Amino acid sequence: MRRFWCSLFILPKSVIYECEKTLRRFLWDSLRDTRKPGKVKWAVVCRPLEDGGLGIKDLTTLNKALILKQLWVLLIDHNSLWAKRRLAHHIRGKSFLNLPGRGNKSWFWRKILLAREEASSSVLYVLGNVHKFSLWFYPWFHGTSIHALFCHVVIHDSGLRCTDKVELVIQDGRWKCRRSLREIRRMSNELIEISNGVQYITISHSQDSIFWLKHG
Could you report the per-residue pLDDT of 31-63, keeping only the tens digit for each? Predict the structure, then answer.
C-alpha cells in the first residue's frame, strides 16, 4: 500500500513525517515518548542490510524515485495505460517537455511537471535514424533543448513550426548545413550558433534512444 500511494502522489512532508514516526515507534517500542530520539539514527536504519542498516526505504527518496519512474514511462512507453491517459487528457499532441508547470492543472500533474527539471540531469537523448525527437523542445542539443537556450524567437527566425521534428534538419544521416555566404547573412546569430553546434553531435545508425544515467 505504501509503495502504491508513493507512486501516485508526491507526498506532503507532514504525511511522510507521520508515517516515519509510526515506523520508529514500531522499531523502538520501548520509547513511549516518540519525541525522544531513536537508538540509531534514522539515516542509518534506512541503509541497505549490507551497509549495516535494516533496509527500510526512506520515504522521501522512495517517493521521488517512483514519481520519476512515472515520468520515465511517459517518455519511453506511450503504450502503457497510464501514459495513454496522460497523452490524451494532459499533453494532447504537445511536447511534454515544454508544457507549462502552472495553470489549471491537478496537484498531481503539476508535481509531475515539476519533476522534469530534476530528471533532466539523469536523462540522455541520443539521435538515431528514426527521428521522433522534437526539434525545439527535446534536450538533444548538448544536453539541453534549443528552446531552453534561445527561447521562442529562434523558432520564429527559422521559419519552421513548433511541432517540427529533428528529422527536418537531417538528410541521409548527416546534418543539413547552410554554407553559402548569402544564406549565412540571412541567418540570425542564434541560428548560426545552432548550425555550428549540431556539427559536433553524432547521429547513430540505430533508432532514437533515451537513456537513464546512473549517478554514484
Answer: 555 566 667 888 888 888 898 888 888 888 888
pLDDT tens, residue by residue, 58-84: 888 888 888 888 888 888 777 778 788
Query: What are the boundaries of each domain within the chain?
Result: 1-120, 126-209
Alpha-carbon distance values, 137 to 54, 81, 150, 151, 171 (Å):
43, 24, 11, 10, 20
pTM over 0.70: no
Euclidean distance between CA atoms 99 and 158, whole angstroms: 21
Q: Do 127 and 208 form a contact (C-beta atoms < 8 A)?
A: yes
Cα–Cα distance, 136 to 157 (Å, whole number): 13
* Beta-sheet pairing, 123-126 with 209-212: antiparallel
Q: Which residues of 192-206 are buried (b: 16+ CB within 10 A; e: fewer)?
A: eebbeebeeeebeee
